[in-house]
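User: These chains co-purify. Model them together.
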Amino acid sequence: AQSVSQHNHHVILSEAASLELGCNYSYGGTVNLFWYVQYPGQHLQLLLKYFSGDPLVKGIKGFEAEFIKSKFSFNLRKPSVQWSDTAEYFCALDMRFGAGTRLTVKP
Amino acid sequence: DTGVSQDPRHKITKRGQNVTFRCDPISEHNRLYWYRQTLGQGPEFLTYFQNEAQLEKSRLLSDRFSAERPKGSFSTLEIQRTEQGDSAMYLCASSLPGNEQFFGPGTRLTVL
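Assistant: Joint model of the two components:
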């Protein structure tokens, strides 16, 4: 069965700090992996996706993620966060979502 | 607005009542999904359709839940004999096969 786990429930950073949010999945077949973001009061929206090819994918707003097949991981990164990145971040394997990580960026 | 829409946005009901939610997907999307989300959790998959066919239904979904997509366009999610544990945000999303999902604003259900 497919499942997704996100390691951090709540991350607090200062502006300009680097971000890495962990995501591990459980599935042995072909994977379609996504990171979605939900800003306060808004819909879930796509940050980036991986289907195949280059394992380093770039998304909107300076985010990127690396697919490491041997580790069943798809971690999200951003070199320098901004206050406006405060949101909830969800990793998804097709239709299976992780529990989410709440990111708070302090100005 | 050509995004996914859901109606109503909020629903308050008494335990034991039936409720029905509607979702209108993006018009060219043939896949439609329903999720439930509670505070502090990610969206929990309930079911999805490809056109009018319901292709998968979560084992977590009790017999009180039913979804339809009769003409392959809008969908309804009905919960019969609601319980307090059904209180949650119900999300609808649509997509093209294998692509990212576009989410609606959700329907917040409160069961008293």
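DSSP finds no helices and twelve strands in chain A.
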